[in-house]
Amino acid sequence: QLQLVESGGGLVQPGGSLRLSCAASGFTFSSYYMTWYRQVLGKERELVAIITSGGSIHYADSMKGRCTIYRDNAKNTVYLHMNSLKAEDTAVYLCKAVGRNTYWGQGTQVTVSS
Predict the structure, then answer these.
(1) What is the spatial distance between Cα 49 and Cα 30, in angstroms, rounded to a whole number?
(2) Over the stretch 11-70, which tens digit does the pLDDT of each residue have?
(3) How far apart are CA 28 and CA 24, in angstroms?
């Protein structure tokens, strides 16, 4: 069954860290670009980071220097480690697989608040 399942979100204080995971199944994970987006209710989805099938990485300006994307092809999982979190990072974080087809996960809520 094809699916992307995000986990690792939650409530964190400003300045804190979180590691998000996106576990994939049902397609050839290693052949896909994996991306993280975030979305605030009422706003468009915003790209956070991309990791290609070859391991090249791009970060959007919004979180550049405060996040790290990496993938474990043996586990069919992509991760997003975020640090120095700010209130404005509060959003639903979603992963997206891009390749022969495009797949989205359901998202995981990240709330940054004291």
Answers:
(1) 17
(2) 999 999 999 999 999 999 999 999 999 999 899 999 999 999 999 999 999 888 999 999
(3) 9
The answer to whether 78 and 70 have CB atoms below 8 angstroms apart is yes
C-alpha 67/C-alpha 3 separation (Å) is 24
Q: How far is CA 24 from CA 3, 38, 55, 84, in A?
A: 6, 18, 17, 27
Residue 30 DSSP label: G
Query: 3-state secondary structure string, 47-91?
Result: EEEEECCCCCEEECCCCCCCEEEEEECCCCEEEEEECCCCHHHCE
